[in-house]
Amino acid sequence: MAIAVEMPKMSDTMEEGVLAAWLVEEGTSVSAGDVVAQVETDKATMDLEVYDDGVLLKRVIGEGDAVPIGGLIAILGQEGEDVSAILAKYDGGGDGAASEATPAASESAPAVAEAAAPAPAVAEQAAPAPPEDGGRVKASPLARKMATEQGIDLTRLTGSGPEGRIIKRDVEAAIGGAVQPAPQPVAPAETPRPVVEPLAPIAAPGGAYESVRISQMRKTIARRLAESKFTNPHFYLTADIDMSEAVSFRAKLNEKAEARDLGKVSFNDLVTKACALALRQHPWVNASWMEAEGEIRLHKDVHMAIAVSVDEGLITPVIRHADRKGLTELASETRELAAKARNRELQPEDWSGSTFSTSNLGMFGIDEFTAIINPPNACILAIGSIRDVPVVKDGVVVPGKQMKVTLSCDHRVVDGVAGAEFLKTVRGYLEDPVTMLL
């Protein structure tokens, strides 16, 4: 019996996946647990495994095609087994390379008898997609979605998919002006109407440009941050921290770490550790607004999300129990997760379950900025650069090293005083970093 391979839900925020690459050809025997393709999710590119033994009878979608969760990707079964029932069940499944195999069948179809009435020969045109039950045009889900978004009438398109089904490439062609509505029948006595060439695309007013496909990660970033910014009532608290002691402390620490062949500790690692320790003392900052459950959740554990920039946007791998880890261990784990994020190798357990987030643009020379809260966290700390500035100590102007940090707070959970007290604790650890070792 043929088996449908569907798009799985690979992350908590995933709504659809893009098939990045096929790793197995049609006709290949596979076993349960074998990886047959790679799927781009909103967080990473992940392996797609099959859960049954069999032959890969059909790759329903092509590389680069997007499929919603539960959509048909491929079909497994016994060699030579009929797959038409599964394709029909999924309403055409995907719009990719698999549907391109159907035109070949029409080449061997019997010729259609010519009309007996004397008339000039008219070139045959493909018929529009036949309506399904109730007059509904046959089209794949993705084609319907694209047509709705672009205001295209599916009844005026000619389908190139199985049984005349309208698929993705048909809608794309219509959007680009390459496909005209199905021609009207010509009376036998009339001369066929001349074909009107489609108009050339109009140049954009702004001149030349390059179109870049919106990745699954970028879609999710846009959706989640828009929801956060316009749903969570943000307010911001900024503090200036004297980093002179932290600079000396880090230099001595890395000297010892190098002697023991340990990785270096960054300033970001110091801030991460200071925040993790401060969250122990300020549970209302280490919290989440859980509206569906009707509660504010005060987390007992400290799981720090560290914002990492990747080509497609931003991802936040999580350092679990950051308050319990030493500085060199924390630094090593941060580097490892950042590398996995940039190589799109993170797994769901690497990015889920954070209780607090940090974002650092100081290494790019940014002195101060505000960050959007990473839901369901109640706060995120934006970290600026360490600046060489004159400061006054004991009535004397001396060289100093200052760093601005800004705490974005969800006012539904964190009040101004609670946020200010948290920042005061963070400042205390960074201005006297030896206390982080006690």
Summary tags:
OB fold (Dihydrolipoamide Acetyltransferase, E2P); Dihydrolipoamide Transferase; Chloramphenicol Acetyltransferase; alpha+beta; 438 residues; 24% strand; six-stranded mixed beta sheet
Q: What would a concise description of this structure say?
A:
This protein folds into three domains: 3-101, Beta Barrel (OB fold (Dihydrolipoamide Acetyltransferase, E2P)); 133-175, Irregular (Dihydrolipoamide Transferase); 216-437, Chloramphenicol acetyltransferase-like domain (Chloramphenicol Acetyltransferase, 2-Layer Sandwich). Helices cover 26% and strands 24% of the residues. The chain is built from ten helices and 18 strands.
Largest sheet: spatial strand order:
9-18-17-16-12-15
How large is the radius of gyration? Answer: 30 Å
Q: Give the name of the CATH architecture of the largest domain.
A: 2-Layer Sandwich
CATH top-level class of the largest domain:
Alpha Beta
Low-pLDDT stretches: 92-130, 178-191
CATH superfamily heading of the largest domain: Chloramphenicol acetyltransferase-like domain
> What fraction strand?
15-25%
Instruction: Estimate percent helicity.
Output: 25-40%
Oligomer: single chain
Number of helices: 10
- Mean pLDDT level: 82
Biggest sheet, in brief?
6 strands, mixed
Please tell me the total number of domains: 3
SSE string:
EEEEEEEEHHHHHEHHEEEEEEHHEEEH
| Amino-to-carboxy terminus distance | 64 Å
CATH topology of the largest domain: Chloramphenicol Acetyltransferase
